[in-house]
Amino acid sequence: METCGAEVQKGNAPEERKLQRLFRNGEATRLIKRCNDFGAGGVSVAIGELADGLSIDLNAVPKKYEGLDGTELAISESQERMAVVVAKEDADAFLALAAKENLQACPVAVVQAEPRLQMHWNGKTIVDISREFLNSNGAPKHISVTVDKPEAFAPTPAVGFRETLEKMAEDLNICSKRGLSERFDSTIGAGTVLMPFGGKYQLTPIQAMVQKISMELKHTDDCSLMAWGYNPLISEKSPYHGAYLAVIESVSKLIASGASFEDVYLTFQEYFEKPGKEGRRWGKPLAALLGAFEAQKDLGVGAIGGKDSMSGSFEKLDVPPTLVSFAVTTAKTGDILSPETKASGHQLILIAAPRTSDGLPEASALIESFHKVASLRASGRAFACYTPGMGGILEAVMKMSFGNGLGFRFAEGWSLEALAQTRYGDFVVEVDRALDGETLLGEVTDRACLEYLGECVPLGDLLRRWEDRLEKVYPCNIETPADEVKTFSAPAERWPAPAVKTAKPRVLIPAFPGTNCEYDSARAVRDAGADAQIMVINNLTADGIARSVEAFARAIRDSQVIFIPGGFSGGDEPDGSAKFITAFFRSQAVREGVTDLLEKRDGLMCGICNGFQALIKLGLVPFGKIVDPDEHCPTLTFNTIARHQSRLVRTRVASNKSPWLRLTEVGDIYTVPISHGEGRFLAEEKMIREIAENGQIATQYVDLEGRATMDVHFNPNGSMQAIEGITSPDGRVLGKMGHSERIGQGLYKNVPGDYDICMFEAAVRYFR
Q1: β pairing state of 439-445 and 407-410
Q2: Which residue intervals of 32-90 are DSSP H helices?
Q3: What 3-state class would DSSP assign to 682?
Q4: 321-342 pLDDT per residue, tens
Q5: Judging by beta carbons within 10 Å of its beta carbon (0-12, 13-18, 19+), is residue 512 exposed, middle or buried?
């Protein structure tokens, strides 16, 4: 507890992925009557809420930690577990489906007619409570509540154009969080419509998450949007105003991102100091809830669900009153707007609603603003949109400018105070030319600075302040090593051919514990014209592993391609990524199957990200066969930035000798998502020279000019010679870090680039 106290909420991504797979299976979900996830309260809540009458066998509950007694089993928190109710006659079928997904499942309770919650442990009944008592929440409680008068929450007056911008860029509430964002996989699922940071430099932060609706077999242009709103500086002065404006901010971010207002819903996350018996403390959540309720009534939108906590106190420290509003809706990918300014010569206009005497946007005028933004988007006049937040128009323009390195000149007539004031519910819209009656803010320029009344502040100075504020905590801009990097070119003269042709090759895709790209990979393969077979590898027992080895070896005989997808095998344990995958492939039956596929049937293999790590450790790249590793073998190790990297990078085709790259030309540049913590390619200089001469360096990380580089903004892991992908000597085996399977219409709309390297289509053509 002294060293791992925080781990009660630590997630287990591999187990979570297995649960997702099970709950995507219609055969399984149709058996479920009710379900609940484990969290605070453990068994007593997760299972206890499922039915009025329950008899729970605590001895049957799998222990996350050894030594737990009955009480601890009943209330201990445990993540990545689900409690489901199924009919008695369906229990065995459901358990079999769970086992198929490599999930541990077991019966732990029985629904009974008598409305009582009973728990049994070691042959004794240790809980026996009537449902009527539980539903009444015990004895009723009363408290007198006092709501304090709101304090003024106006921001500090602006003191000068440069000083205001610099102070704003360094503010913890406004500064860049890119180093934190890139630690999370932003492109998983191949449905990301807007990257977290956009523009050719990937620096303008988006204001709403936009993701395609997940579909396993089909394609869609429907997408979901979610945005949040909360200003702690306002909320600590007036919880009422803070909650009201949180709703306005969250909804406005959806509108700025291209959504319509007609179908918006909310949910709230609330967090307040421990109230005890103090009426003034109780007054803060009351005021916040009243503010949020008033905003819902004014906008005509409802909140669905939410989560609250009154435990935000530690000794003499209290959290500020916190009500975070999350707004959600749906749209079409074609409707989505990104916030980075697009072209020099365009203009920015302001759409603003008047304020009431309380300092809040006038509701009917605000809704009219929503419709104006939607009209500009529908007519094609809006190229970008941003709703100002804590830093007002200045913050909006600064962040809109970062993405493409474009400057901005403010029009005359604007006071610095008006530009810097907090303006929730307003919109800054990029148009080609402002029309009569529209409020002009100024003009986008190709001069990389922000200009106001003749004063010019370089964009680069602001960018450094904006990113340096958290650089020591979440690094982004580490120093580029002085290593000499060569841009390789080895065009193919001829390509290998298969021993047997087939019109529709079968691609075998193993899903190991931690694999999370199997659906993306299968969809990309199917779209290219192949038949995809996903096989879940079971490792819960020795017998399960043995059966998986046998089944996989049989499946290889019926397949033409093996595709090892990305993920975090074994939880991506330090310096051990892909260990289980390689151990599996080294088993005799699988090893013989792979050898037969490559050497006798001229089949293909590829591995992406985690799959590339496995191919490297197996020796399949660069040697073309499974070998025992030694100190001379290349490897993939920790990124030089010492953290996970998730972003888009540019890769250049250095050699197209592989059948996987036959549809490309040497020198072609493709943008590709990456998501890894161990992607740095290391090898002896002799090895790199040999594979370069043999045309086995398939792709390299390149900068905006198409040059191979060690710059961390383009080479995300510090790979030697900027190597992103390599092949076997004959090119039939390809390993690469970039997720070339994460492609589709309407994706990554805020980062320009060519995303489809056509490697799967090339593989299909190879067999025809």
Answers
A1: antiparallel
A2: 42-46, 70-75
A3: strand
A4: 999 999 999 999 999 999 999 9
A5: buried
